[in-house]
Amino acid sequence: MHEVDVVVIGGGPAGMAAAISAYESGIEDVWLLERDYWVGGILPQCIHDGFGNFVFGEMLTGSEYAQRYINKLRETGVKVRPNTMVLKIDQNREITAVNPSDGLIEVKAKTIILSMGCRERTRYQVLIPGSRPAGIYTAGVIQRYINIEGLMPGKKVVILGSGDVGMIMARRLTLEGAKVKGVYEITKTPGGLTRNVVQCLEDYNIPLHLSHTITNITGRYRVEGVTVAEVDSELRPIKETERYVPCDTVVLSVGLIPENELSKMAGVEIEEKTKGPTVDEQMQTSVPGIFACGNVVNVYDLVDDVSESAERAGKGVAASIGGKLERRKTPIRVKTGRNVNYIVPQIIRNKNLNESTRFYFRVKETEKSVGVVVSANGDKLLEKRERIVRPPEMVRINVPPDTLDKIKGDELTIDVEERKK
User: Fold this and answer.
1) With bands split at pLDDT 50, 70 and 90, how would you rate the model's confidence at 421?
2) CB-hemisphere CA count at 13 Å for 385?
3) What pTM, to 2 d.p., does this model score?
4) 330 in helix, strand or coil?
5) What is the pLDDT of residue 409?
6) CA 152 to CA 150: how far, in whole Å?
7) For residue 352, is pLDDT > 80?
8) Largest CA distance in the chain
9) Tens of pLDDT along 42-97?
10) Angle at alpha carbon of residue 69, lines to 64 and 72, rounded to 5°
11) Beta-carbon contacts of residue 82 (< 8 Å; ≥ 6 apart)
């Protein structure tokens, strides 16, 4: 049984940033376990730019962003173990893992950082009927095939869902010579960032069909076509609007799910809306000594935000090991107010914080000219103006430590309020 101060599970951008942060915060005994053959997570297959604007102050490709952290990781004493699959963790922070060179590995950790990322929803999780031919892929698989493996999956493509990766791959497929016949989104608004709607679809004349879905996939051995239809206000297909679209490839971009099987195994409390752990301002979960960060907590829009949450987790484990976390007698629960779907973090457990707490949240409905209001006990503590808020785009607000110290009760609420013109 190895005894380690910090074990980070997952070597994507969150895992690398968390391990580096913990090490730079004074914890020298840090392990990073990654099940793939290399660290970096999904970033090496993201050859488009748009990464690192906040963290590094410049626009990088995903692979460049990953390499920056790999270079920083090499300058530390973090022990990186790739090709290592974690099989089990428990509430006592005992970890069982396996790899080809060491066989079975057992580790007793003082603290654990969960950074396993997220996975894509599949056809069967969104209940698309039809036959089971070749040619049906998730957007991430298509991205890997083209950008890493050098394989072209098809020539006539229909994309279901307007998530960011799906829109980015609509552009990528077009650049490689495929004909993207349309992106079909079941909701009445795009599911990804506005910049991707403009740069990936509109700039390449790729049709975006809102309030539409696929009702059937046709083909015996290979996809031959799909049936699409408009949906009503209850998201039910309207039979009279069905039409057939010939294609040889279907790409699914229908959402991401935080990868929390290990979190549940350890008894970590999971939020219903985010599908990730309940965390406090230091990214500590409901189980003492187990922290979480990145897309395992909540699917972020930007990798910069993933890294920011990971840096907080790294500092959190260092403070925990050093005995510097001073708990409040009564934790503060963070409540969702008007037009707020969910918030991360969900609880404030510690006092005498030396830096602002950044809250991330998503709204339920698009609104223009609003104020993000932080209040407690009916008193407004802070307000931030926003020109527009949209469900696909995460909103951020920083609350200084002296503002949190003013809270006497056990609740803090974040609302999105209409501003009077």
Assistant:
1) low
2) 5
3) 0.94
4) strand
5) 82
6) 7
7) no
8) 66
9) 999 999 999 999 999 999 999 999 999 999 999 999 999 999 999 999 999 999 99
10) 125
11) 11, 34, 36, 37, 38, 39
Assigned token pair, 96: 């069982």
Region for residue 130 given its phi and psi (left: phi exceeds 0; alpha: psi -120 to 50; beta: otherwise): left
The one-letter amino acid at 145: Y
pLDDT band at residue 207 under the 50/70/90 scheme:
very high
Up-side HSE of residue 80: CA atoms within 13 Å toward CB?
A: 25
What's the rounded Cα separation, in Å, for the pair 3 and 38? 24
State both tokens at 147: 């950008």
Provide the CA 378 distance to its chain's centre, in angstroms.
32
**Helix then strand then coil, % of the chain, to nearest 5:** 25, 40, 40
Query: CA dist 362 to 134, 135, 246, 301, 395, Å?
Result: 36, 34, 36, 11, 6
**CB environment 304-341: b (16+ within 10 A), e (fewer):** bbbbbbbbbbbbbbbbbbeeebeebeeebebebbebbe
Segment 297-316 mean pLDDT = 96
The closest of 266, 259, 348 to 298, measured between CA atoms, is 259
- How many residues comprise the chain? 421
* Ordered structural domains, the chain, with CATH: 1-120+256-325 (3.50.50.60), 122-254 (3.50.50.60), 327-421 (2.60.40)
What is the overall mean pLDDT for the chain?
95
Give the Cα separation of 49 and 200 in Å (integer). 12
Question: What's the alpha-carbon Rg for the chain, to the nearest Å?
Answer: 22
Q: Looking at this protein, which amino acid is placed at residue 96?
A: T
Give, in order, the Cα–Cα distances in Å from 155 to each of 152, 179, 249: 8, 6, 7
Tell me the CA distances in angstroms from 161 to 153, 167, 240, 343, one per residue in order.
Answer: 18, 9, 21, 24
HSE value, Cβ hemisphere, 13 Å, CA-based, for 61 = 9
Q: How big is the CA angle at 166 (ends 165 and 168), to the nearest 5 degrees?
A: 65
- pLDDT for 17 equals 98
Cα distance between residue 209 and residue 347, in whole Å: 39
